[in-house]
């Protein structure tokens, strides 16, 4: 019986995909798993021949790039495991992460999603336990309440870069680079496939917030770690442009879906007021970009 279905999307990263799968096979022990590679409309197709002799390997080619959620859903449609692991092609497994994480998942009956520690190649920790955008947190910054708050409380409030990643924690959302969930939750909460309202960016936030609304927890565990190279399949783009052109519209829509459109606009308004209050030309420039977004001139 297959316990875990590992889905890896290849989009023009055949060498990274090979290294990812090879590392997974070399380090995964004492658990029944399958690997499903989805070639997502790649110009540089993945050569599956080195793995085709394996009974637990499957290769799927899509002539069209279905996006992050769509590509993963194609893999999920063929998955036989009780647990689903969405694993980026730019990751490297260095220990028995799948077994460790699934054992931890089993010990948390109300867990909806789980991620291990993500490390950069230099060994530094990538913040992957996150808070969702919140009017309360935006107002704390706007009214400078955080200046009167100690570091420990701020860490619990904001997580992200403030969190101590040696400690497990429940969070609002985790990154999709190494995203464990249950197949039964995909069936029962999402109707058989993960929501895919956007082509790319913020899907992981949406999935996690929807799981929370259904009563499940999103958990970060330091019990195991993987290396995440980061951004290998993406075209180069200025980080600020990426945020305003890709992330912000999808995050805004996520808040509309999981909360309300009014809440989404209030959060953006609070951010604009914060930026204006900084009395800094660079922040004023960003405030103008937020205003352009609000009034539909992106």
What does this protein structure show overall?
The chain is an alpha/beta fold and 298 residues long. It folds into 2 domains: 4-228, Spore Coat Polysaccharide Biosynthesis Protein SpsA, Chain A (Alpha-Beta Complex); 239-294, no CATH class. It is 40% helix and 21% strand. α7 runs parallel beside α8 and α8 (239-258) runs antiparallel to α9. The N and C termini lie far apart (49 Å). The model has no long low-confidence stretch (mean pLDDT 95).
Through-space gap between termini: 49 Å
Order of helices and strands: EHEEHEEHEEEHHEEEHHEHHH
Q: Count the beta strands.
A: 12
Largest sheet: 10 strands, mixed
Q: Count up the domains.
A: 2
> Any idea of the CATH topology of the largest domain?
Spore Coat Polysaccharide Biosynthesis Protein SpsA, Chain A
> What would CATH call the architecture of the largest domain?
Alpha-Beta Complex
- Binned, the helix content reads 25-40%
Round the mean pLDDT to the nearest integer and report it: 95
CATH 4th-level superfamily of the largest domain:
Spore Coat Polysaccharide Biosynthesis Protein SpsA, Chain A
Strand content: 15-25%
CATH class of the largest domain: Alpha Beta
Radius of gyration: 20 Å
Low-confidence stretches: none
User: How would you classify the helix and strand content by structural class?
Assistant: alpha/beta
Figure out the total of helices.
10
Overall morphology: globular
Brief synopsis:
It is built from ten helices and twelve strands. The chain is globular.
């Amino acid at each position: 019986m297959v316990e875990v279905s590992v889905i890896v999307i290849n989009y023009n990263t055949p060498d990274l995909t090979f290294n990812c799968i090879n590392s997974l096979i070399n380090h995964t022990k004492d658990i029944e798993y399958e690997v499903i590679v989805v070639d997502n409309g790649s110009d540089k197709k993945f050569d599956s021949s080195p793995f085709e002799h394996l009974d637990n390997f499957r290769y799927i080619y899509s002539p069209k790039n279905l996006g992050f959620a769509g590509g993963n859903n194609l893999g999920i449609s063929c998955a036989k495991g009780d647990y689903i692991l969405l694993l980026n092609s730019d990751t490297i497994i260095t220990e028995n992460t799948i077994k460790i994480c699934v054992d931890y998942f089993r010990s948390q009956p109300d867990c909806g999603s789980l991620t291990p520690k993500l490390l950069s190649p230099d060994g530094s920790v990538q913040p992957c336990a996150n808070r969702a955008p919140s009017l309360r947190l935006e107002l704390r910054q706007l009214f400078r309440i955080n200046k009167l708050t100690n570091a420990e409380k701020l860490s619990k409030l904001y997580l992200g870069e403030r969190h101590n990643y040696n400690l497990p924690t429940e969070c609002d959302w985790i990154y999709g680079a190494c995203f464990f969930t249950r197949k039964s939750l995909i069936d029962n909460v999402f109707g058989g496939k993960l929501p895919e309202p956007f082509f790319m960016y913020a899907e992981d936030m949406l999935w996690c917030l929807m799981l929370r609304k259904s009563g499940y927890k999103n958990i970060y565990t330091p019990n195991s770690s993987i290396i995440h190279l980061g951004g290998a399949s993406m075209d180069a783009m200025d980080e600020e442009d990426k945020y305003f052109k890709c992330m912000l519209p999808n995050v805004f829509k996520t808040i509309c879906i999981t909360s309300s459109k009014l809440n989404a606009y209030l959060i953006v308004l609070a951010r604009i007021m914060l930026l204006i209050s900084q009395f800094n030309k660079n922040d004023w420039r960003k405030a103008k970009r937020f205003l352009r977004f609000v009034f539909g001139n992106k």
